[in-house]
Amino acid sequence: MQLNQPDYVISLASAGFIVNVEVNVWSATKQDKGISEEVTSAYKADKDSGRFVKHLLAGDPSHKQLLNHRQTVYNWVKRRTYDWAGSSRYLPMAHLEKFKSEFDEMRSEHAGLLAKFEQAYPDIVGAMQFKHGDMFDASEYPSVTEIGKRFGMKLFITPVPTNDFRVAIADDIARDLKEHYERSANEKVQEIMRDASMRLVDYIKRIAHACRDVEPDENGKARRPKVYEATLAQAKEQCELLKEFNLTNDSQLEEMRRDLLATIDGISAQDIRDSDATRAHVKSEVDKILSKFSL
Predict the structure, then answer these.
(1) What element of type H or E holds 154?
(2) pLDDT tens figures, 13-22
(3) Higher pLDDT, 227 or 52
(4) Is the pTM of this model over 0.90?
(5) Residue 249 in contact with residue 242, Cβ under 8 Å?
(6) Is the torsion defined by CA of 36, 37, 43, 49 positive or negative?
(7) Nearest-CA neighbor of 281 among 229, 207, 214?
């Protein structure tokens, strides 16, 4: 029996790629068994009941910047892509060029932070002798020539697998495998499109919240909600993406996308902040969208 890939997998393969961004950062932590045993012994506890972990760089700001940048990269990847399997993410083809460009920018930022850290590394290790006192152990610190190898940032892009399986096995087993394959593919498409829809809904709700009437704060003073340019930009970008990336041909999603884009196209956060009429118009239109689709 021949097992052909279902149409959903073909759609996924033609509409995007699987991407994986790896950011390696030296954690600069090390368990100290000697101190762990001293502490548990002092408290008359089992030796496995606790452990002492040394922070070798003790909050050094240049190292902390590298750790924070890694989280920034992971947040960016999550925002730009959709869940696929673990660290592998699904990237719509419409965003590939921009994704690669933004990755290059972030890799450049990572390299700059690393260069700054490497330059300061000898002085940082010297300062740790005073911070760690008797706990300091020079052998726990990589050399200046080795430290750069503990860091790195890479991008991997692979196509969605669309192999045509031909198996010489019993028809009933082949049929079960094919049904499982099609069901898994369908579930993945539904999951990705559900995520894409919820992102659009989230932008609609955030814009509605930002355009609400002025409310008094705890002191009775008028407090105008904040409107962010990034929110509008990301909402418009999601609208443009879903114009091409609607794998299930969801008519409701397409209508919602069109309605939102028509509402905010050509409008900036500054327009909403400066004009009561503009803010009221946007609020009215996004409220209509929420009401129309019972969101």
Answers:
(1) strand 152-159
(2) 788 889 999 9
(3) 227
(4) no
(5) no
(6) positive
(7) 207
pLDDT digits (tens, 9 = 90+) for 127-170: 999 888 888 889 999 998 899 899 999 999 988 876 544 334 44
The answer on 99 and 16 residing in a single domain is yes
DSSP-derived letter for residue 121 is: H
pLDDT at 165: 43
From first CA to last CA, the distance across the chain in angstroms is: 46
Residues 79 and 209 in one domain: no
Residue 267 is which amino acid?
Answer: I
Domain boundary among 159, 184, 202: 159
What are the distances in angstroms from CA 71 to CA 74, 94, 145, 237?
5, 25, 26, 23
Amino acid at 49: S
Pairwise CA distance, residues 194 & 87, whole Å: 19
Q: Is 41 part of any domain? A: yes
Same domain, residue pair 130 and 179: no
Question: Identity (one letter) of the amino acid at 269?
Answer: A
Shared domain check, 107 and 11: yes
42 CB-near residues (< 8 Å, 6+ apart) = none
Q: Is residue 86 part of a domain?
A: yes
User: How many CB atoms sit inside 10 A of residue 61's CB?
Assistant: 11
Residues 30 and 83 in one domain: yes
Same domain membership, residue 188 and residue 98: no
Look at the chain and report how many structural domains it folds into: 2
Q: How many other C-beta atoms lie within 10 A of the C-beta of residue 19? A: 23
Which ranges in 57-170 belong to alpha helices (H)?
A: 61-80, 96-132, 144-147
- The amino acid sitting at 276 is D
